Amino acid sequence: MRGITTDCSSCINSNCFIKKHLHLEKMQDFVLEKTNYTCKKGQQFMIEGAPIQGLYFIYKGKVKVLKTGIYGKEQIVRLTTDGDTLGFRGFGTSNRYLIAASAIEDTVLCNFSNDIMHAILKSIPEFTYDMMLFYAEELNKSENRVKKIAQMNVRERVIDILLYLLKKFGHTNNLLNINLSRKEIADFAGTTDEQVTRILSSLKKENAIKIVNKKIGILQADKLKSEIIEHK
């Protein structure tokens, strides 16, 4: 990873956990100690089982969070973008990352080391309290996702992911602002590349989506939502 410099005070990511607490007096000193990195597309910067190197916050870019399943198959558990937090699942409870992460596109990261994070948590009660609420919310999201996926068939899981991508990343000219391969969609849906290709082809014939140079566009979001409404 290549080192660069970013300024938290000029950051436009209002959802960033650090940015939200920048108004706290003591935070001004801590943000000066962070480290920034640029990751190229496809570069892995967190390795499952490797020693924890603090928390990462995405300044700009897109990242997929991975976990190894049975037979060594990768499972995408989360997709993240500007302002999102990475590495928090193992922080404070384990000395090693419980997941891996790699850049989907060129990405700029802010890293707060273990020592810095521990110092912040011990000295800024408001930050610590909000971090506790953040963990509770993330746990609730994970539990709801596991329950939902267990009740969905493969077509419903693929549709759910398409709607998630639309909500998370938005679209331009009716094309999603993120370009995932069929394998990546399959790794997220817990299925195979072949099944994803067949389902996308079927949805295209139904005029629910369009595909332009392998990029996906949602044409009938309401139609797709109606298929999975019972799982929401």
From TrEMBL:
Query: What superkingdom does the record give?
Result: Bacteria
Q: Which SUPFAM superfamilies match?
A: cAMP-binding domain-like (SSF51206), Winged helix' DNA-binding domain (SSF46785)
What InterPro entries does UniProt report for this protein, alphabetically? cNMP-bd_dom, cNMP-bd_dom_sf, Env_Response_Regulators, HTH_CRP, RmlC-like_jellyroll, WH-like_DNA-bd_sf, WH_DNA-bd_sf
What keywords sit in the KW lines?
A: DNA-binding, Transcription, Transcription regulation
Instruction: State the Gene3D superfamilies in the record.
Output: Jelly Rolls, Winged helix-like DNA-binding domain superfamily/Winged helix DNA-binding domain
Report the transmembrane regions from the record.
none
What are the HTH crp-type domain coordinates in residue numbering? 152-222
Q: What sequence ranges are listed for the domain Cyclic nucleotide-binding?
A: 32-87
Q: What is this protein called?
A: Crp/Fnr family transcriptional regulator
Lineage here is: Bacteria, Pseudomonadati, Bacteroidota, Flavobacteriia, Flavobacteriales
